Every structure is written in structure tokens, then in C-alpha cells.
Amino acid sequence: MRTRILQPGDGVAEAVSLLAEGLPVALPTETVYGLAADALSPGACACVFEAKERPLSDPLIVHIPSLDWLSRIAAPSPLALALAERFWPGPLTLVLPRQALVPDIVTAGQDTVAIRMSAHPVFAEVLQAFGRPVAAPSANRFGRISPTCAAHVASELDGRIAMILDGGPCTHGIESTIVHVLPNRLQILRPGPITEDDLRAFAPAFHGPSGIAAPGGLKSHYAPRTKLVIERSPKPKGARNGLLSWSHTGEGFLQAEFLSCSGDLREAAANLYGAMRRLDEAGLDLIIAEALPEYGIGAAIMERLRKAAA
Ligand code: TXA
Ligand code: MG
Q1: Which CATH class, in words, describes the domain spanning 4-206?
Q2: Domain 228-309 falls in which CATH fold?
Q3: Best of 29, 117, 178 to mutate for ligand 1, by most ligand atoms within 8 A of CB?
Q4: What is the mean pLDDT of residues 277-304?
Q5: Which of 82, 214, 232, 249 has the smallest C-beta neighbourhood within 10 Å, fewest atoms?
């Protein structure tokens, strides 16, 4: 199969017609690129698992075109509704009790469903025109680094999908925050652009494993092929070491990637996966990642680095 990269405009109509045929297409979101398919079609969702080589035990996030779909897909509590109203469209995924309309392949047979509404204008345009929700995991092969531009998607899935809609680089650059909404508490399953402080304004929040066997909850995930370690004060250990830098000058390293020259954690998040990919492609024998401060979105960046190092 030839994978075409199309621009918004013609690309939107083409993406909608492929979705309607039950085929997956890669679409930009504000977090990372997603591999989207009709969420209400088990066959279309099966193609997503196949293209990614993703185990069927790992459920997908349902992305809805508008808020009125929320209660058709899930059973939102007042707390869930308040979060959706505050943070959607945006980088927050809610795990809620599911409705029967959602196919089992999407939820991996769980009684909950993960759901979000993306703020990316191109993604929103496709969903408005398609008129149905799409299931969309990150558009990488299973266990690999999430794509933050169309070229990353091509390097992951070329020849496996019909098209990539090029919406430019992703603003946030790391995946959405995932929250399991409990009766009076919020369980953070994956840290992300919506921070713990943002959530605490609504209910007490705590971190905890989802209980799903194979998700981004796995210890090793987001993995480069090159060995990666995290250090507070990085020092090269050999001639072919690369540096993923937060504040280090890069001196002594064969190659260095700088996450943010102005010390901005949001900029660092947006640059993270592209920088990891460039280091991974440089033929190094070790990548040393400098530890970042763990406040705000820094906590989410460090979680990704720990998984890359595992
Ligand atoms: O930013 C994002 O969330 C991106 C964009 C494309 O929307 N999507 C994304 O999807 O990161 P994915 O599949 O790569 O990661 C979703 C995570 C997986 O670790 C999955 O196990 C978990 O969400 N998940 C999905 N449904 C769940 C559920 N019902 N309960 C707990 N975790 C769930
Ligand atoms: Mg993923």
C-alpha cells in the first residue's frame, strides 16, 4: 500500500472518505498524531491494531466530534461533566463507564471507555465532516516513540496505511493526560499537558495504575532503540554518546539535542519526541537524558523519560 501525505483542504475530504470506507488514517491532534478509525466499526478498529501491531488487550481512546456524543459513548458523572466543560476541546482524556454502543474491541472488553475531544482545528474539521467518533491511538508502531509531525508518522507506518493528513507539528508534543473519574476523586493514569494542579481544582487527585494489563501503563514504552539513561549532571561515558539536554551545554557529547533554550517546560514537551527520534537515528551507543524539574508538565516529561529508560 502506498501511503500518501496530504495537506488540509483536499486532505480533509479524502480522510473523511477513507474513514467512511472503514480504513484508518493518520490525523494531527494538539498532543501527538493519532491513527484514527470509525470508533463504532469493529472492523475499522481492527485495522488500527493491525497497522500498529498493538495487542488487542490495550484499549483505544474514543475522540468525539461534539459534546453531545459524550453521553452516547459513556456515562459521565457531574464531576466528569465539569472536567469536560473546563478542558474540552483539549488534551484531557476521561476514563468513564461505557455505553453499550461502544464496540468491545475499542475498550478491550473493559466496562470503562477512554474519551476525549481534540482541539486541533484540522482534526475537528475531519470529525465534523465525518459526523461520528473515531478511535485513535498514537500513530506509531506499538511501544515506539509517539509522532509529533507527519514525517514521524511516515517513518513509523509507511506502507501500512493509506494516508497521513499533515497538520504541521503538534503544539503539546506529549500525549493527553488520562484521568479515571471516580465518585469523588481523580485517578491520574497518565500525566500530561493538563497538570495535577489543574485537576486538583475539581477533586482530590492521586496517581495509580489502571489495572489494564498492557497499556501505556507498561513500564517500558515510548522507547528509542538506543539505550537511554537519565542523569542529573550528564557526563559522557564514551565517544558515541548523545545528550538530551535541559540546561547542559552539550560539551563532550557527539550529538546534543536541546529541549528548550529558554528553560520553558512546555517548549521542552513539544520538542521531546522529535529530539529523541533524532538521537535514536544518529547511530549512538548511549543517550544520556538530563533530568528536568518535575513540576507542571515537567512531571509528564520525566514519566516519558523513565519509560524510555526502562
Ligand atoms: O494524546 C493522546 O491521548 C493521543 C492522541 C492521538 O489523542 N492518543 C494516545 O492514545 O496517546 P494511545 O492509545 O497511544 O494511549 C492511550 C492510553 C493507552 O495506554 C491505553 O491503555 C489507555 O490509554 N486506555 C484506553 N482506554 C482505557 C481504559 N478504558 N481504561 C484505562 N486506560 C485506557
Ligand atoms: Mg501510544
Answers
A1: alpha beta
A2: Rossmann fold (3.40.50)
A3: 178
A4: 97
A5: 232
Q: Which of 107, 86, 83 is nearest to 94 (CA)?
A: 83
* SS3 category, 80: helix
Task: Compute, in angstroms, the gap from residue 219 CA to the centroid of ligand 2.
Answer: 13
C-alpha cell at 11: 486532505
Ligand nearest to the CA of 30: 1
Q: Using one digit for the tens of pLDDT, what is the confidence trace for 1-22?
A: 999 999 998 999 999 999 999 9
Q: What pTM was estimated for this model as a whole?
A: 0.94
Instruction: Determine the straight-line distance between the first and last CA of the chain, rounded to whole angstroms.
Output: 34
Can you read off the three cell numbers belonging to residue 156? 513509523
Query: Domains of the chain: which residue ranges?
Result: 4-206, 228-309
Residue 203: CB partners within 8 Å, gap ≥ 6? 79, 184, 185, 186
d(CA 126, CA 115): 17
